[in-house]
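Hi support team,

I'm opening this ticket because the web form for multi-chain structure prediction keeps timing out on my end. I have pasted the exact lines I submitted so you can reproduce it. The total is 1360 residues across four entries, so I didn't expect it to be a heavy job. Is there a limit I'm missing, or should I split the entries? Thanks in advance, R.K.
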Amino acid sequence: MLFFENDYGYGAHPKVLEYLAQTNMEPVSGYGNDKFTASAAEKIKAAADCPDAQVYFLTGGTQTNMVVIDTLLRPYEGVVASSCGHVNTHEAGAIESTGHKVLTVPHKNGKLDADDLREYVQTFYADASHDHMVFPGMVYISHPSEYGTLYTKNELERLSAVCREFSMPLFLDGARLGYGLTADTDVTLADIAKLTDVFYIGGTKCGALCGEAVVFTHGNMPKQFVTMVKRRGAMIAKGRLNALQFDALFTDGLYEKICAPAVKLAIKLRDGLKAKGYRFALESPTNQQFIIVENSRLPELQSKVVYSFIEKYDAEHTVIRLATSWATTEEQVDELLSIL
Amino acid sequence: MLFFENDYGYGAHPKVLEYLAQTNMEPVSGYGNDKFTASAAEKIKAAADCPDAQVYFLTGGTQTNMVVIDTLLRPYEGVVASSCGHVNTHEAGAIESTGHKVLTVPHKNGKLDADDLREYVQTFYADASHDHMVFPGMVYISHPSEYGTLYTKNELERLSAVCREFSMPLFLDGARLGYGLTADTDVTLADIAKLTDVFYIGGTKCGALCGEAVVFTHGNMPKQFVTMVKRRGAMIAKGRLNALQFDALFTDGLYEKICAPAVKLAIKLRDGLKAKGYRFALESPTNQQFIIVENSRLPELQSKVVYSFIEKYDAEHTVIRLATSWATTEEQVDELLSIL
Amino acid sequence: MLFFENDYGYGAHPKVLEYLAQTNMEPVSGYGNDKFTASAAEKIKAAADCPDAQVYFLTGGTQTNMVVIDTLLRPYEGVVASSCGHVNTHEAGAIESTGHKVLTVPHKNGKLDADDLREYVQTFYADASHDHMVFPGMVYISHPSEYGTLYTKNELERLSAVCREFSMPLFLDGARLGYGLTADTDVTLADIAKLTDVFYIGGTKCGALCGEAVVFTHGNMPKQFVTMVKRRGAMIAKGRLNALQFDALFTDGLYEKICAPAVKLAIKLRDGLKAKGYRFALESPTNQQFIIVENSRLPELQSKVVYSFIEKYDAEHTVIRLATSWATTEEQVDELLSIL
Amino acid sequence: MLFFENDYGYGAHPKVLEYLAQTNMEPVSGYGNDKFTASAAEKIKAAADCPDAQVYFLTGGTQTNMVVIDTLLRPYEGVVASSCGHVNTHEAGAIESTGHKVLTVPHKNGKLDADDLREYVQTFYADASHDHMVFPGMVYISHPSEYGTLYTKNELERLSAVCREFSMPLFLDGARLGYGLTADTDVTLADIAKLTDVFYIGGTKCGALCGEAVVFTHGNMPKQFVTMVKRRGAMIAKGRLNALQFDALFTDGLYEKICAPAVKLAIKLRDGLKAKGYRFALESPTNQQFIIVENSRLPELQSKVVYSFIEKYDAEHTVIRLATSWATTEEQVDELLSIL
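Hello R.K., no limit was hit. The queue was backed up. Here is the completed structure from your submission:
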């Protein structure tokens, strides 16, 4: 059975596991007060060229979005996101569970447009009764987006400018950042560190067993952040677990080295399917491909490939997602192409 | 440097790591919908002799307490705990962050007394204005307690009876359950499953990298529990991570096999220190020992042993904690005894 | 200066004030345990022909929406509302402050359409990942709507049917119910009681100093509702205050008697303005009229009339609201017509 | 039937009602943007001699405590209160519903002792793991206390000093402030304004139908306070209602003029009962008297007087509360004394 269901179906990249095993019997203090955490943070700051940054390791993506947004917003503020933003759709109301509203702007190709954002904020402040409304307090984007699309450097710069104009921190969800950085893009990790106020580097979907590295890019970690992390049940006793994995992933560029092939294979798959006449829900340059399949093809497909159902396209077609990961092999892609 | 600071300073028990490595390249679905999760749950239900139980794997202890308490309480209810209960003292207000009050009863030897509990609840219902007060909605105990002490089977039975009398679910926090089950005790895992409504088996402090196994003992998992777990940011994409570790720990009794020696070594340490004239803050039958040390001894001690500061005892003495774990060796205990 | 800014600019209807004065020196117990509360509840149940209903008096509209929605939803649920629903736009995130998401469906003429609602809910349950999403747990509508429009009896019946099909309580916000019941409509108070699960009768905007009467239509008041009201700071010590006003308003049909003239005057105003060639943002049959005015006319208007700015219509026009109330006189409307 | 159950059993002081009637037909803007609100605020600032203060009118006591505490605390902080503090006991968990813990210190005679407070805070900061605990972020006291007792000026000064030392705002709940200011005390309204950071002047229990006036004593109202008030459902549309009552109460010293007789009558009652040999649960200098009555006396008493049950004293005695108010007459007290 071929596995293209998602990018979190396997364990960890072998080098990550090796490093866990190698350091296993070194005792260290808990809760992130250990040398592995310090080392991983330094490597990330170096890789992102942001020496004044502060790095904190959390365990999962929804948790990270919840903690970052909750700790950055004032009580009377909400977070602006595109209508398809993960925080708005598939986090079971985690943001609202912390008392904050997700303020939505219709997405364009999975992304938040800077002009749409400016208009939203200007309309808000122009409203005579905005004291009775939720203030736009920060902005959330995901890169790659939920549809696999990427912001260009110019798009990020324009979003960043709007955010700074209205004093709204810009937060970039990088759950799949490895597959974004290694795609056909003009955006580097250093660009992200420069243009956002906080972002996270996804581990779970990019080679780790778990773990997301939150980067406050300019010494702007909220006061008593650790206490607020603990308060949300998001602190783990063995802080080493998340940190060690990033320490491995940011040694010798492993993070990008293992994500790059996944993107190449996704592009090979995309181009192969295009050649066969498949249509796509939208054009994705990263490891997730959203294709439109005739319903009549699905039973056979299901017997050979694990994929994700996304949505009904029309009465006779369905959108499915095929995802590659660091664990995907060229043979698997070739076999998938031969089946489809 | 000797390490007796806590029971979460090392990585995972080698057999746990081995199992992670061995299964690493088998792809499975995410979020707990995988065969490893199913297998681990079955093994736990067998070990606890509770075939109708439902098992869910979470990542950390505070998270587990927060999720279980939040999902079991009605909005107008709080959780009753002893004054030294972890949820009341060292979770940064995680319970309150979900909108619930922790209702406290003074502890006795680190434990909640059944008679004290009954009196608390009776006084509440006798109060003419109890509609303006937080209702006692469930009861939280930890076993071993924060001070390493254990409930006897009779004490658990009496607590359980009060809880059932007043329709309050009884929740047992087993962060260190392995060290409780393998101490000098008349309480078995099956007793706990029979006498409580929900409990968790601690992984993080008992041989895993992370992970706590929540057991709803009689099919009483709250409706849409997974959605509420997700809503609190407590669901991890690679559900396999937590489950695989418990699958290993509950194969061939590994969980108790690796905790038992830690307890034995703690008792050896306790008895050795008693023989040397040391006083203890209280009598603990498990892997945590709380000793009273002259302040003048601390500088030398710190140069040779990592321990935990607990509290000032008096002007000239300090209470420190020495903890053993599955990773502690007899040589380390002997060396510690020779130092102290 | 003419006052058409809103329907809460004056004090209370004189008969309401009189009743407060008349009963002022009769001591009663607090928190709603008094004969006035009991009497007002009975009168409301009679007026709405719902003998099994439970009535509770709260103080303000946002508070009422917050308390009703928070106490009816389960933790994993959100409330479905039209995109222009008051709970979604002008309550400063009160619903989210209780941890719940407002799930929006685009409005049609200020209203939630039953077919749109059914499609929303069906799409939700058809989504393979809906366990990771906020469940639609109840439905909120306002009648009159935020734009002054009214549901027909048939529209309410169809909404009610969808709600019952999917076990979602239907909640009707009647902040301006008096102006809805006395407009050109086929919907009676008894219809509302029959077709909804909970609704509230607005006092603040319909002749009272404050106060909203929540009606759980079929004995479905949530368990320990008073405790949850208290928990949200929504209980007042002198429960008599809210109750006495409703006791007066529901004596001899005062509530409708004082609202009916306001609606008539609003229609007179509407028809008069139409005759003068004014355009309307939408057609409203109740006491709020939304007219489109040339920006150049506004300075003079502001010097003679207090009105509400609603929004920019285009570069040269603005939408303003003119509201009548129980306190508006025919002379005032005539004078306004002569000015406009 | 004599009424000594509480101080909120009657309507409003007649002068308050008169003022409501007199201003009833003057239309003003809503939500506190009106001349009555401005006038009342100025009168309060003058009475408290705090020209830089900001005044906001809310509706009830629990609501006020909830809003003030929620808006002043940071997310990782809790409020310190005495164990008998209203926020800890009889507000149904309103503080916790906003996500904050109430941190308790045992009370002394109903009050929080400055030395106990200092020790609590010092112990907190001395704890090595205080990052995992709820930070003491502000201090709550009530004056008069829940038991009717009063802080001396010196006690307030010492509490204020501790609060300033540790940067914790001091909040004084003055639900019954009128009865505190007019008792045998060396504390003036100006003292309170000088020594606290925020306090509220109780209206509901001191002559108003509803309403509490929150005073931020030195321009320290939290940013966007109105939005946060709205978010908690605590803003009323007719802001005039609360404001007008305080406008009346702070005209010509009415507030103290009507509370002083209530205190005098309570002292007459106290002294009369002492002369008859009654014992008191504690010595109260204000309008609430807590007496110990033989259970055998209660049935007869209940047939003649409405009083409040407080608690069982011992097997044969009960503590009851007798409260006077601005509405109590000397005849009523004489009759009560003749009965008891």
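A quick check on our side: Chain D touches chain A at residues 31, 70-71, 74-76, 99, 131-133, 135, 223-224, 226-228, 230-231 (CB under 8 Å). Let us know if the file doesn't open in your viewer.
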